[in-house]
Amino acid sequence: MASATAGEDGQFKLSETSVLKIKKGDITQWFIDGSSDAIVNPANPRMLGGGGADGAIHRAAGPELREACVKVPEVRPGVRCPTGEARITPGFKLPASHVIHTVGPIYDSDKDPKGSLRNAYKNCLSVAKKNNIQYIAFPSISCGVYGYPYEEAATVALPTIKEFADGIKEVHFVLFDGNVYDVWLRKAKELLQV
């Protein structure tokens, strides 16, 4: 039975073994155990840092993160991580042990923004499982400069997480923006109630 816990955190049961927690905060400060946890970086295809959460994660992780990203092979010139795919690096100076980089769709120019956003979440969870990550924290992928409307993004993200979270103990959304947090919490109550 899904229920919201007291305090700021919204907690929802995804399966017998997986829980979703939605909280307001700074994803660069998030960690659970520092060994089997990962934060998701809403990267650009070059994976070399940028604005918003991407830039904040690179700054918090230190220059080693950029160096690790440079070593990720390009699949075509200027593209290390195509839209909807995911790559993993160590977390370096971050409290979380790993960073899973994914590229969300640019809402107005992607041919299938819903499919691309779904793939970004699904592939992050797949990479997490392959690397024995038990705890993962997502931002609201594509909701910043990529212009994905919050309501639509939550409607894609939450059911995708529920569908593919098996094998991961806790999935967190750590949302910096209060408006995004409010939308995610409301949509989770609508979409994830058992």
Could you give the topology of this structure?
Elements: E1 10-13, E2 19-24, E3 37-42, H1 52-61, H2 63-70, E4 86-90, E5 98-102, H3 113-130, E6 135-138, H4 150-164, E7 170-175, H5 178-191
Helix pairs in contact: 3-4, 4-5
Pfam family, one: Macro
Protein name: Macro domain-containing protein
InterPro entries: Macro_dom (IPR002589), Macro_dom-like (IPR043472)
Annotation keywords:
single chain, 194 residues, alpha/beta, Leucine Aminopeptidase, subunit E, domain 1, seven-stranded mixed beta sheet, 7 strands, Macro domain-containing protein, Macro_dom
Give an overview in words:
Residues 7-192 form the Macro domain. It comes from Hibiscus trionum (Flower of an hour). It holds the Pfam family Macro. This is Macro domain-containing protein. The protein is 34% helix and 19% strand. A 7-stranded mixed beta sheet has the order 1-2-7-6-3-5-4, with helices on both faces. The protein is of the alpha/beta class. The protein has helices at 52-61, 63-70, 113-130, 150-164, 178-191; strands spanning 10-13, 19-24, 37-42, 86-90, 98-102, 135-138, 170-175. α4 links the parallel β6 and β7 (170-175). The protein has one domain (12-175): Leucine Aminopeptidase, subunit E, domain 1.
